[in-house]
Amino acid sequence: MLVLPKSLFFAYTFIPHGHCYLWKPGLVWLHVIADTLIASAYYSIPITLFFLVRNRKDLPFHWVFLLFAGFIIACGTTHVLEVWTLWHPIYWVSGGVKALTAAVSVYTAMISVPLVPKVLALPSAAQLEAANRELEREIRDREQLEVARRKSEALLTEAQYIAKLGNWELDLTTQTSTWSQEQFRLLNRDPALGEPTYAEALALYYPADAALLDQAMQQAIATGASYKLTVRVALAEGGMRFLNVAGYAETNAADTVIRLYGTTQDITEQTLLEQKLTEKQQLLDTFINTAPIGFCVLNSQLQYTLVNPALAEINGVAIADHVHKTPWDIVPDLATQQAKIFLQVLEAGQSIKDVEIIGETPKAPGLKRAWLASYFPVHTAQQTLMGVGIVVVEITDLRDAAEKIRASLKEKEVLLQEVHHRVKNNLQIVDGLIQMQVRRSQDSNIIAVLRDSQSRIASIALVHEKLYCSDTLANIDFAYYLPDLIAHLFESYKISSSQIQLCLHVEPIEVDIETAIPCGLIINELVSNALKYAFPDNREGFIQIEFYQGKTQTAPPQLELFVRDNGIGLPADFQIQNTRSLGMTLVQGLVEQLEGILEIRHQPGSEFKITFPKP
C-alpha cells in the first residue's frame, strides 16, 4: 500500500529534471527564478480576486472570478513543481497537477464561451461614465425639483395664509386625514397634536354647525355629492370665526367613494361686512320708507326706479304704479317745471338744492300746492352717472303761513313807520313851540337854554326820521345819521365851515334806537359845547369826530366814540363829576345808560372818548 505513494513522491527510478540542463548553474537558476516568480505572481492574483469578490458582492458573475482564481492557483502550482522536479523527479505528481490544471482550464474555457455575450452586454466604462453623468444629472434635477417643491410648498403655505384658505383630505380606507398648516390655524388646532380624528375634527365646530357638516360629509360618502357650507368656530380669545367649507368625493373604479378632500376659507371679515351692510341697508330702507319727506330716484331715461311711501302719498299714486314711468306720466303739471333741472343734473352731474315748485298732483286735482325740492346725481359703484335723486318736502302750509307772516309784518312795518313819523312830527311841534318861546323871551340865558333843548330835540327827531326812512325800521347806519346831526348844529349856531372845520371819520356801523338816541345826544352836547365855548372871538379851528369798532378782540365788541377839538380847552381843574352843567351831567348819565366809560383829555384843546359795548 505504501509503494504507490512512495513511487509518487520518491521516484528514484527517474532522474531529476536538472540533468536535462546538464546541471549548468546558470540555466538551472534561470528556470528556478522564472518559475518561482511565475508561481508567486499566480498565487498573488487569486488573493486579489478573493479580496475583490469578498468586498464587492454586488459584482456580476462573481463565481467566475472564483473559478479563475482556482485555475490560476493550479497553474501556479505547476510552476512550483517545475522547480521541485529539478532535484526531485516526482513526475507523477507534477503530471497529476497538470491534469487537474487542464481539467480546470477546460471547464473554465467551456463556461467562458456562453458567458462572453453576457459580459459583452455589460456596459462599457464609457457607457458607465455616461450613465453616471446621467444619474448625476437626474440627481441634480431631483434636487432642483425638491427645492422647487419645497419652495412651492412654502409659497402655497404663504398664499393660503394670505388668502386664509386651508385644505384637507380624508382617506376613508385608512380613516386618516391630512391638513395644511392653514387648516390647523383656521380651526385653532395645534399642529404639534397632528391631524385629528373624524370625531375630533367635528368637535372643533359649533355643535349645530358640526351636525350640519357631519350630515353633508355622510351624504358625500354615500352618494359622492359635493357640498358647501358656512360654519363657525369659537376663538380662544373670544368671538367666533366664520368659515366657508367645501368638500368633494373621489371614487375608485367600482364607483365607491374612497377619499374626501376640500378647502376651508376664513370669511369672517366678509361675513361681518355683509352683516354691517345688511344693517345699513335695513336702516336706509327704514329711513326711506318711514321718512316724512318724499324721495325718489329716476334713471337716465327719467323713469322711476325707487319711490318711497311719502312721495307716493304726495302724488296720490301707488308705489307700484310709479315703476318704469316718467314724471310726465305721473305728475305732468310738475314735470314740465322740472325738465330743465333734470337735464342739468344729468349733464353737469351737480346738485341743485331748494327749488320751489308749485302745481297739481293726482291726489288733489285742481288744488295748487307747493313743494321744496332738491336734486342730486346718483352714481354707480364705478362712479358712472346713472340717474337723478329727488328729495321733496311739501311746504304748502308753510308757504301760506309765511304769506300771512309777511302780510302781518308789512302791516307792522307800516305801523312802525307811522309811529316814527308821528314821533318825529310831535318832536317838531315841540321844537316849534320852543322856537315861539325863544321869540317871546328877552332873557339871553333862557334863550340859550331853550336853544340847547331845541338841539337835543332835533337830535332825537333826526333818529326817528332816519328810522322812518330805513329798510329795517330797527337799526340805523350811524355814518348816515351823524353828518345830518352835525350840519344841523352848525346851522343852529350859525357857524361857518370856513371858521371851524369838521373832520368826520365814521365807520358804517348799524345801531338800534336804544343806542342811537344816547349817542346822538352825547355828540349833540359835546359838539354844542365846542361850538359855543372852544372858539371865542371868532377863533378858527376844527372839530373831529371818530366812531368805529375797537381793534381789541373782546366779547361783545367795543365801540369807540371820539369828539375832540383844538380850541381853548377845558379849565385845568375841570372835573366832570363836580360840574353843575346840565350838558355834562346829561353826558355822564347817557354814558352810564350805554354801560360805557368816559375819558377826558384837556390839552391841547379837549378830547372826549366814550367806549361802550356794541349792542
How do the helices and strands line up, and which of them pair or pack?
Blueprint: H1 3-9, H2 25-55, H3 62-84, H4 91-121, H5 125-163, E1 165-171, E2 176-179, H6 181-186, H7 198-202, H8 207-223, E3 227-234, E4 240-251, E5 257-266, H9 268-290, E6 294-299, E7 304-307, H10 309-315, H11 327-330, H12 332-348, E8 352-359, E9 369-379, E10 385-394, H13 396-440, H14 444-469, E11 475-477, H15 478-492, E12 500-506, E13 510-512, H16 513-534, E14 541-549, E15 558-565, H17 582-593, E16 597-601, E17 606-613
Parallel strand pairs: 12-14
Antiparallel strand pairs: 1-2, 1-5, 3-4, 4-5, 6-7, 6-10, 8-9, 9-10, 11-13, 14-15, 15-17, 16-17
Q: Could you tell me how far the N terminus lies from the C terminus, measured between alpha carbons in angstroms? A: 166 Å
What's the main sheet like? 5 strands, antiparallel
What is the SS-derived class?
Answer: alpha+beta
Count of distinct strands: 17
Strand content: 15-25%
Strand order of the largest sheet: 2-1-5-4-3
Give unreliable regions as ranges.
418-422
Q: Helical content, roughly?
A: 40-55%
Tell me the radius of gyration: 65 Å
Shape: elongated
Count helical runs.
Answer: 17
- Average predicted confidence as pLDDT: 81
Give a quick rundown of the structure.
With 615 residues, the chain is of the alpha+beta class.
